[in-house]
Amino acid sequence: MIQLNLQEGLQKAVLSLMPDANISSILVRPCPDLKFGDYQANALIGLAKRNKMDPRKFAEQVIDKLDVSEFCELVEVAGPGFLNFRLKTESISDVLVRACKGEHLFFSIEKKPRTIVIDYSSPNVAKPMHVGHIRSTILGYTLAKVFRLLGHKVVTDNHIGDWGTQFGKLLVGWKENLDKNALSVDALHEMERLYKLVNAACDNDEVVLDRVRHELVKLQDGDEENLIIWRKMIELSRHQFDEIYSRLKVDFDETLGESFYNDRLKRIVDELFERGIAEESEGAKIVYFNESKALKKHPAMVQKSDGAANYTTTDLATLEYRQNSWQPSEVIYVTDGRQQLHFQQLFELYTRWKPEHAMKLNHVWFGAILGEDGKPFKTRSGEIVRLNYLLNEAEQRAFDVVTEKNPDMGENERREIARVVGIGALKYADLSGNRQSDYVFSWDNMLSLVGNTAPYLLYAYTRICSIFRKLDGEIILKPKFFTLAQAEELTLAKHLLRFGLVLEQVGDECRPNFLCNYLYELAGYYASFYENCPVLQAEGEIRIQRLALCDLTGKVLKTGLETLGLETTERM
RNA sequence: GCGUGCGUAGCUCAAUUGGAUAGAGCGCUGGCCUCCGAAGCCAGAGGUUGUGGGUUCGACCCCCGCCGCGCGUACCA
Q: Domain A2-87 carries which CATH code?
């Protein structure tokens, strides 16, 4: 808010001296150290140098043209030409007062909302969801929340894997080895067993392989019996996906699986071929990217030699559908980093197919899940950890701690708190790291309840709630101004002002860990404030102001946590 | 081979367009509950950012070489 005012003011001042300057790089950011000031701009140095000017002198000239006295003390030039801004307490107070009136919560709603399609989670039918799916699901949902909070229109779409060669094997297994009892107990487990069974048999038995191909062709040709089984498998799978999503409190606007696009694939391949974009090679249809360094040696396949389309074609159809249906300005895919080549090809190819499209195509990728030995993650028995098991474990661990801390609390309440804390810890662990870093799976790490974790933030929130409970119906007055005389009050207040900037940065770079860091710092500043600034014992205006600071901190914490997909609890 | 990504404290991770003294947590050492919730607070120890050069007023970040690792590399997605 103030930061934006400073930034716009600075950009104007620069333009008045340098009418053709590129002001998009003239940014005002928080200072790394409060001793320098509250906000700084360091882009003037480079600008001056590029124009062969002395950076410090240029900075002085800009300051002469700059009027930010409404918000700041004297603007200073420091070091090689940094501009340091120090906020006036009155101007901080103004922002807080308006926030108390409910005019804003330290961020502004986008005046020109964009439409953004986000593709995340995308589990495969007949396979249990496991730890590998959680990052995509959590990251994608959080990004959707962030964009919506900022006022954008978001369409979320779960592109489930409900079509493909695996169904040949599944159909053979279903017809020959189905255990109906096991299916009713745990459908995905049974389907996974069938898949593995047939998959193993294929390795050394041509006869089985032929049966698999035969069943697949029948399915693709619309064989009624196979279609019924296929639909049954999808239904059973979706039922279990929904269970997980409901526990994670994640949802989607659309769930259009790969099969939704089946009848569009042939037309696309034909069109690519007729326009000379695709060509034939070894019986398959291929697209070459000769003009691209990275893709020169990696052609994309749009049709296999057996005539079937593959996932590149499906993704082209999906993208076309999304463009036509929602006219988004951006489409975001949240998947793991191993698919980078695929999305490079897809984006390049789509642009060649539809040169007029203006969508930003964005592959938001994340790192691999590794075991504690640094190798791709598996449990001791060689299995991948199932998501529902992970969620159970998270809740159980949290329950043990809640019980230890609150032995007198009723079990229902402890269970509910454990659910919020446990699932929250799991999500937060996934969101708080840089998404591109590889992820080392560790129960203790993922379900840790101390340090920079969800419980720390939730705890800060419960302390705020606790203060307001003690008011016991007393009417809370809204302060007309904030004195902010104590250092901890001032630090906390200044941090509240930064909320909007952080949300923008999360959206710009699709990195929710920025928001986690911000909230962790906010909770930390609140903890210091809490230790050093009595609220209920304070008197008069100070008491009113501190109560308001608690209230605003609580609102930002709650909003931030909800944006990360975390629920809050008033006690824990 | 080619492409791509990574290497930061004992461990797990941050570091806001190249910006000021590289920050947290865990663990370790020590202090704080007649005081709004100690799942907390305060203090301390802990680093040649894999390595060698280069660009720059300034490099964890950009460029080049080397070492180590992950992933990808046409009929899986």
A: 3.30.1360.70
Task: Pick out residues 310-329 of chain A having their CB under 7 A from any atom of nucleic acid strand B.
Answer: 310-311, 314
Query: Rounded distance, CA A120 to CA A154, Å?
Result: 13
Contact predicate A507/A329, CB 8 Å: no
A128 close to A134: Cβ distance less than 8 angstroms: no
Domain ranges of chain A: 2-87, 115-367
Tokens 């800009």 identify what position?
A: A62
Q: Is the CB of A432 under 7 A from strand B?
A: yes
CB A139 within 8 A of CB A430: yes
Which positions of strand B lie within 7 Å of protein CB atoms? 1-6, 12-21, 24-27, 35-42, 57-58, 69-77
Dist CA A244 CA A249 (whole Å): 8
| Both structure tokens of A145 | 């929340």
Checking each nucleotide's C1' against the CA of A375, the nearest proves to be B70
> CA-to-C1' distance for A179 and B7, Å?
49
CA A342 to chain centre: 21
Q: What is the ipTM of this complex?
A: 0.95
Which nucleotide C1' is nearest A536 CA? B36
Written as tens digits, the pLDDT of chain A (572 aa) is: 899 999 999 999 999 999 988 888 899 999 988 889 999 999 999 999 888 899 999 999 999 999 999 999 989 999 999 999 999 999 999 999 999 999 999 999 999 999 999 999 999 998 888 887 889 999 999 999 999 999 999 999 999 999 988 899 999 999 999 999 999 999 998 998 999 889 888 877 888 888 998 998 899 888 999 999 999 999 999 999 999 999 999 999 999 999 999 999 999 999 999 999 999 999 999 999 988 777 888 999 999 998 888 899 999 999 999 999 999 999 999 998 889 999 999 999 999 999 999 999 999 999 877 766 666 666 666 677 888 888 999 999 999 999 999 999 999 999 999 999 999 999 999 899 889 887 777 777 777 888 899 999 999 999 999 999 999 888 889 999 999 999 999 999 999 999 999 999 999 999 999 999 999 999 999 999 999 999 999 999 999 999 999 999 999 999 999 999 999 999 99
Q: H/E element holding A128?
A: none
- Tell if A25 CB is < 7 Å from nucleic strand B: yes
Query: A457 CA, B40 C1': separation in Å?
Result: 12
Q: Phi and psi at residue A285, in whole multiples of 5°?
A: -105, 125
For A115-367, the fitting CATH number among 2.40.30.20, 3.40.50.620, 3.30.300.30, 3.40.50.2300 is 3.40.50.620
Among all strands, which nt has the closest C1' to A311 (CA)? Answer: B77
